[in-house]
Amino acid sequence: MGIPRSTATRAMISRSALTAHARACAADGGRVADLRRDAYGHGLLVAARAVLAAGVEEIRVDGPDQVAMLRDQGLTANATAVPDIDPVALYGMRPDADGVKRPAMRLTGHVMSTKPLRRGEAVSYGYTHRAERDTTVALITGGYAQAVVRALGNRAHVELRGQVHPIVGRVAMDVCVVDLQSSDAVADEGDEVTYFGGSGPARAFLGEWADATGFTPEELVCAAGLHATRVEGD
Q1: Where are the beta strands (DSSP E) in 169-207?
Q2: Which one, of 116, 119, 164, 120, lies nearest residue 139 by Cα?
Q3: Are 2 and 90 in contact (CB under 8 A)?
Q4: What tens digit of pLDDT does each residue of 146-176 get?
């Protein structure tokens, strides 16, 4: 049984970011790109097209099934080549020091509902967070079943309407709670929420995920992409 549509996350994959990162890696002397595990959750076909078009000489895939699939699309792949391109650089998993590099994946959810939370009231099971003041919280799609790791509760943030808000309480299976940080805050059902990636404040949030969980950016992106509905765009 699949994840209910109402609680699914989306992985927005940028072809232009993939192409730009691959071109830069090739210019630095990289020859073989690592596209195993469905291109680290970015989608093998879209990543293969972008990487090869950018001038990378070879791509490494998981096995003969992937080689055959890409051959049917007119693309050449290899199941034995040794990658020499850093996947963190290829997929833009860590922004440059000046924040210019754009991640190839933007992971999103959406607001399901909002409610007032009074000072002293708690959220989520275990009551690991209690409001320090009257505020508004939003229930948003994405939980540990979608690779929004439980350790992110009380330790990570999301972007909503261009503003940064903390995830509070324990992350549940399919949802988590965000503090909008004001009793007058407004968020509408269906508003998009960005967990990491994009061009706004969430651009660098994957680093926050890595710090909170102990997982590498590669592990986090791969799991998130494989559990989300992927949408390809520019």
Answers
A1: 175-179, 192-196
A2: 116
A3: no
A4: 999 999 999 999 999 999 999 999 999 999 9
Q: Which CATH class is domain 105-233?
A: mainly beta
Predicted pLDDT at 1:
39
CA distance between the termini of the chain:
31
CA distances from 150 to 8, 125, 126, 142 (A): 16, 12, 13, 11
Per the CB < 8 A criterion, the answer to whether 181 and 135 are in contact is: yes
* Angle, helix 205-213 to helix 217-227, in steps of 10 degrees: 110
- What CATH number does the domain located at 15-90 have? 3.20.20.10
If 0-12 CB within 10 Å is exposed, 13-18 middle and 19+ buried, where does residue 166 land?
middle
Every domain of the chain and the residues it spans: 15-90, 105-233
Contact criterion met (CB below 8 Å) for 17 and 25: no
- Pair 19, 50: CB distance under 8 Å: yes
Taking 50 as the threshold, does the pLDDT of residue 186 lie above it? yes
Degrees, nearest 5: CA angle 6-12-17: 170
Euclidean distance between CA atoms 83 and 151, whole angstroms? 31
- Residue 71: Cβ within 10 Å count: 12
pTM over 0.90: yes
Residue 40's φ and ψ, nearest 5 degrees, are: 55, 40
203-224 pLDDT per residue, tens: 989 999 999 999 999 999 999 9
* pLDDT tens, position by position, 42-67: 999 999 999 999 999 999 999 999 99
